[in-house]
């Protein structure tokens, strides 16, 4: 009798476990399989997988063009008598949308200056990329436009920091995932990753929800925290002070981001060579970009975009105070210094935005509220700086066109 009861009890436990397995584990496995098999059909957001680049922007997904750039379509063959430049960069080429981004403002300035549409400024920036990845994008898509000039927009805030030579950033179910390109497994033209897609999806959505909730709470109160030069934070109405965007970060997250960027400039780490791998990778990518463009007789200019903590002393002081840092331990402009030394050695032209941004910041705010990108004033200033520095190149080009006819 006891044996029978034990036997029945074991069977019941086994049946319960089987039912639990069928009700929980099997559905989760099915969902995981569906997210792998149906990803190209279920997740048609802004991004899609690209075996060469890791990811690309889906063509025409959000008003962008055939290559996924934040711009209109241009004919691939340049029209005779026109000057064509590409601006290669990251998410800075998306701030302000298509019409208010600095690349469009720059093209408008050239049109107004010459009176006719003679200078084409093509925006070829991908968000979430660093210079090494932008080099691959330029080779695959950008050079199809046959430009006269390429401007590389280098953002000092993260272009060195993100520069892992083995990183391949892919988009899976609209989620950024960084994998080691040496270990990538591709089946039927699609990446297989060693993590649960469902769990990654849930994690990302939860983080987005948390961050949005923090930001919304501040916005609903009608006030937000503005960086102060004193230990006590100053609260002001955000509508009357600083332009904000839908991607506003919570103050806590924003300061953490800026602190991580400032940490790249720690003098001790630079002296010990702890940044050398990232730095050398990026500098080599710039040299390779220069070599490729020289072979095609395409002019090359590097535009150096500053981080807000370098421009806004109030923000810098707040980071120092918030995290109890010692400013004397940081070489705040180390990224510009490293980059310019290399560019001068390689005889590559560059435009450093830092001083003009610092001067203009004293008059008006140039960055979005608690968000690393330029606001409308910052985009306009960037366009002004590029116009002032690039206009001699376009003037020389058009003068060379009229010289033969003038000699006749």
CATH topology: Rossmann fold
Mean pLDDT, rounded to whole units? 83
CATH superfamily: SGNH hydrolase
The first-level CATH class is given as Alpha Beta
Given the helix and strand composition, which structural class is it? Answer: alpha/beta
Based on the coordinates given, report the CATH architecture.
3-Layer(aba) Sandwich
Shape: globular
Could you please describe the fold and organization of this structure?
The protein is an alpha/beta fold and 408 residues long. Helix content is 48%, strand content 15%. The chain contains 14 helices and 13 strands. The protein has helices at residues 2-37, 39-42, 97-100, 102-114, 131-140, 197-220, 251-263, 267-271, 276-295, 308-311, 313-322, 334-345, 354-361, 376-407, and strands spanning 47-50, 54-57, 83-88, 119-123, 149-155, 167-172, 175-180, 185-187, 190-192, 224-226, 234-236, 299-305, 349-352. Strands 4-3-5-12-13 form a five-stranded parallel β-sheet, with helices on both faces. A two-stranded antiparallel sheet has the order 1-2. The longest helix has 36 residues, at 2-37. 35% of the residues are buried. It is found in: Periplasm. This is GDSL-like Lipase/Acylhydrolase family protein. Pathway: Glycan biosynthesis; alginate biosynthesis.
């Amino acid at each position: 009798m006891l044996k029978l009861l034990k036997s029945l009890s074991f069977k019941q436990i086994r049946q319960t476990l089987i039912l639990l397995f069928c009700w929980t584990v099997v559905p989760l496995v099915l969902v995981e399989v569906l997210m792998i098999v149906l990803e190209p059909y279920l997740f048609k957001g802004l991004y899609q997988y690209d075996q060469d680049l890791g990811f690309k922007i889906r063509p025409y997904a959000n008003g962008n063009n055939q290559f996924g750039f934040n711009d209109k379509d241009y004919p691939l063959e340049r029209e005779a008598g026109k000057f064509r430049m590409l601006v290669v960069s990251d998410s800075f080429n998306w701030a302000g949308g298509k019409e208010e981004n600095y690349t469009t403002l720059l093209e408008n300035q050239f049109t107004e200056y010459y009176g006719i549409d003679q200078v084409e400024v093509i925006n070829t920036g991908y968000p979430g990329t660093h210079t090494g990845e932008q080099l691959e994008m330029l080779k695959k898509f950008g050079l199809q436009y046959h430009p006269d000039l390429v401007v590389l927009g280098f953002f000092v805030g993260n272009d060195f920091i993100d520069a892992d030579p083995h990183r391949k950033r892919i988009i899976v179910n609209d989620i950024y995932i960084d994998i080691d390109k040496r270990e990538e497994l591709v089946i039927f033209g699609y990446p297989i990753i060693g993590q649960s897609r469902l769990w990654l999806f849930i994690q990302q959505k939860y983080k987005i929800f948390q961050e949005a909730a923090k930001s919304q709470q501040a916005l609903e109160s009608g006030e937000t925290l503005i960086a102060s030069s004193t230990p006590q934070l100053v609260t002001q109405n955000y509508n009357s002070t600083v332009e904000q965007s839908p991607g506003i970060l919570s103050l806590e997250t924003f300061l953490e981001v800026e602190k991580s960027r400032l940490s790249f400039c720690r003098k001790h780490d630079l002296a010990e060579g702890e940044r050398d791998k990232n730095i050398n990778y990026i500098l080599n990518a710039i040299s390779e970009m220069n070599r490729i463009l020289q072979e095609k007789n395409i002019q090359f200019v590097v535009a150096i975009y500053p981080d807000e903590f370098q421009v806004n002393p109030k923000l810098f002081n707040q980071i120092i105070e918030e995290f109890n840092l010692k400013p004397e331990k940081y070489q705040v402009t180390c990224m510009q210094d490293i980059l310019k030394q290399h560019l001068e050695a390689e005889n590559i032209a560059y435009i450093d935005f830092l001083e003009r941004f610092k001067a203009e910041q004293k008059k008006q705010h140039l960055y979005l509220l608690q968000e690393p990108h330029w606001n409308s004033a910052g985009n306009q200033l960037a366009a002004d700086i590029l116009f002032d520095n690039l206009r001699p190149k376009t003037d020389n080009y058009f003068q060379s066109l009229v010289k033969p006819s003038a000699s006749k």
